[in-house]
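Fold description:
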Amino acid sequence: MKTVLIAEDEEAISRVLSAYLSKAGYTPVRAANGNQALELFKQSTPALVLLDIMMPGMDGFELLYKIRELSSCPVIMLTARDEIENRLAGLNGGADDYMSKPFVPEEVVARVNAVLRRPVQWTDGNVKRCYGSLLIDYTARTVLLNGVEISLTPRDLSLLLFMAERPHQIYTREQLIEYVWGMDYEGSDRAVDLSIKRLRQALSHWPPEEGEIRTLRGTGYQFWSK
């Protein structure tokens, strides 16, 4: 079972989310403040974090920063704040999705499912795949080219992992927005093009005979590898 860390200081909300996630097949762990959440993050290595902004000790923005120093683990921010500045601050800080309170627990589970939608079987805790000189560690969420780790933004990394897990599958911009950006994404689908452009730059030394991210004009994008 995948572990989901719930960093939420409101006991009632935390308990409800925990119950719904358990029912959906996840293993929830709960933290009531930022400091406790950081320790649990290090101990449990969760597959995803549900992160409230307004927490005692260490707020969600500071905790998100510390998480991003350690990992590219997906983060969905939960907050009563609905101002666009806070939404942008979370997304620009590396959050993968954003939900404003009050929310329906079923929708939170749906968002978790969308972010973690992966075809790889996480059975041995050490899932790696080689595409020629490109090595992707799906457990550690790291990418190495010729033995050197490539630095990617959390969103670009999520896009690469999603497509690489499905080599040769063709995706439209709309599908990638839904699967990687999240169902409530309100920006332009040009974000996909820009992310693909950054990935190609990061993988510029990956030999084309080993693989590449292809554009199929009028259709979408494809991760291709021999």
Summary: Confidence is low (pLDDT under 50) at residues 118-125. The longest strand covers residues 211-216. Helices lie at 11-23, 34-44, 60-70, 84-92, 105-115, 154-164, 173-181, 190-202.
